[in-house]
Design goal:
seven-stranded mixed sheet, 14 helices, alpha+beta, Aminopeptidase, 19 strands, binds coenzyme A
Length: 450
């Protein structure tokens, strides 16, 4: 498997399909600032954002050059240097139950210009990137979606959810454990210098999280435009444990909506230990002069309400699908994680794009490790054994590649998908076994958009 996605050429099938419509598909040279700037502006326009400042382009140029940056150009338009479609991809490290790490083809910046929409450009790009990822040996692909209706057709399904959490400050009385360490206000640059190491530890203990890139921290900490209103409004603090080791970082802003209505908006929250989690939340929710505390993209299984005397001081909203998973290689994907129970399960997988079709036998040992083999399809097995198919086969789950991605991290129970008619099991016992097998040690959670 290649670690550097930038070195792979664009997919020949998609190149031919786009060329047939007079379009040119290619890679952006991410060492060429002018070419990168045109691509960056197209990406921003595609998401209906403002034109990017030179400072933001400089930051993106410095931070995102490691990504495979692709575009589609239409040489017949007046501003032909600006691509009419964009996608960027890279091989991220995804934490899976165990915990363990698996390489995942992260897809971002999917845009098609409003002048070129609905003529198959996004489909060509998505399918082209999936073929490139599969050929490179990357076991699965991941993304976060602007709309829930776009990506199922390419084999993705939501595997984790997030929520916005809002705390009514006036109802806060802390009853959680007393943190053993201390919180210190620090400058943003100081927080930035320690956050990567703490974040790596936090990410590696939570299924669904991916490794971070420097630009994302700079954004959270207001370091891209430090003199802007937003940059100056951000406060950063660090949590040190009882031994003085930094274990967590937060960045937040205080926003006065009207006199005496002040919201504390959490821009960044990283805690590598449960103690740091409690220490930082206690600090945030006990802020004087604050009416409410709001944090986006939090886990749907957040312990915070249990740390307050009045757990209804915490309100949840915007509960949404978040990390979407697309399995490309079921054997490598399924073998990468640990399982919640021992047992044998056959997965009969269908995949309209062909990458993951087949029958896969999952054998989980007592320690939760799995070995996965391709199994003969049911009719073949029954014919070879000369028996009735049901008797010849072990517990079998029949599902699309989408639903394989949905259950993979343990955030969606097979039983729930079966109730929705999205997967089928040969018996209720099989479904119960599937629930036990795919259970994760922590509720999967991705806490950043990408
Ligand atoms: C989403 C977007 C990239 C689609 O590009 P496009 O080139 O118009 O898409 P295509 O013509 O290749 O369409 C492919 C399929 O997706 C469907 N589709 C496209 N955009 C869709 C949308 N926003 N919602 C639902 N379905 C959509 C098409 O109907 C088509 O379906 P079919 O193949 O089953 O007939 C484009 O609308 C866009 O740039 N949107 C704004 C930015 C954005 O939200 N990007 C996604 C980031 S996660």
């Amino acid at each position: 498997m290649t670690a550097d996605a930038r070195l792979l050429p664009v997919d020949s099938e998609s190149t031919a399909a786009l060329a047939a419509s007079g379009l040119r598909y290619g890679l952006v040279d991410t060492t060429d600032r002018a070419a990168f700037a045109a691509w960056d502006q197209a990406d921003s326009r595609g998401f209906h954002e403002s034109r990017l400042s030179e400072a933001t382009i400089d930051a993106n140029f410095a931070n995102l050059a490691y990504r495979r940056t692709t575009g589609v150009w239409d040489d017949t338009i007046p501003d032909a240097a600006v691509p009419v479609a964009t996608v960027s991809t890279w091989v991220a490290e995804l934490t899976v139950p165990g915990p363990a790490i698996v390489p995942a083809w992260a897809v971002s910046s999917v845009t098609v210009a409003a002048t070129h929409r609905r003529r198959g450009i996004a489909r060509a790009l998505m399918e082209g990137e999936l073929r490139t990822a599969a050929a490179a040996g990357v076991p699965l692909a991941i993304l976060t979606a602007s709309e829930a209706t776009i990506y199922s057709r390419y084999g993705y399904a939501p595997a984790t959810s997030v929520a916005t959490l809002e705390v009514d400050r006036r109802r806060v009385a802390w009853v959680g454990p007393t943190p053993t360490g201390r919180v210190h206000f620090v400058q943003a640059a100081s927080a930035r210098s320690i956050v990567e190491e703490i974040s790596a530890r936090a990410v590696s203990r939570t299924p669904g999280e991916i490794d971070r890139w420097g630009g994302r921290f700079d954004q959270h900490f207001g370091l891209i435009a430090p003199d802007s209103d937003r940059g100056r409004s951000i406060r950063t603090a660090r949590y040190d444990d009882a031994e003085g080791t930094p274990q967590g970082v937060v960045a937040f802003r205080l926003i006065e909506h009207e006199p005496d209505i002040v919201r504390l908006e959490v821009e960044h929250f990283t805690a590598a230990t449960d103690d740091a989690y409690a220490g930082l939340w206690k600090f945030l929710v006990e802020h004087d002069l604050v009416t409410s505390i709001r944090a986006r993209h939090r886990s749907i299984d957040e312990p915070l309400p249990l740390l307050l005397a009045d757990r209804r001081a915490v309100r949840w909203s915007e509960v949404e699908d978040f990390l979407w998973v697309r399995v490309l290689d079921p054997i490598a994907t399924l073998e990468s994680r640990r399982y919640g129970a021992a047992g044998r399960l056959d997965l009969e997988v269908s995949d309209a794009l062909g990458f993951a079709s087949g029958r896969f036998r999952l054998d989980v040992a007592a320690d939760g490790t799995a070995s996965v083999t391709r199994a003969p399809s049911v009719p073949d097995a029954a014919r070879d054994a000369g028996t009735d198919a049901a008797a010849a086969d072990p517990a079998t789950l029949t599902l699309t590649v989408n639903q394989l991605g949905a259950v993979f991290l343990g955030g969606i129970r097979p039983t729930v998908l079966a109730a929705a008619g999205l997967i089928a099991a040969d018996s209720p016992e099989t479904l119960a076994l599937a629930d036990r097998l795919f259970a994760a040690e922590r509720t999967p959670h991705l806490s950043i958009v990408f």
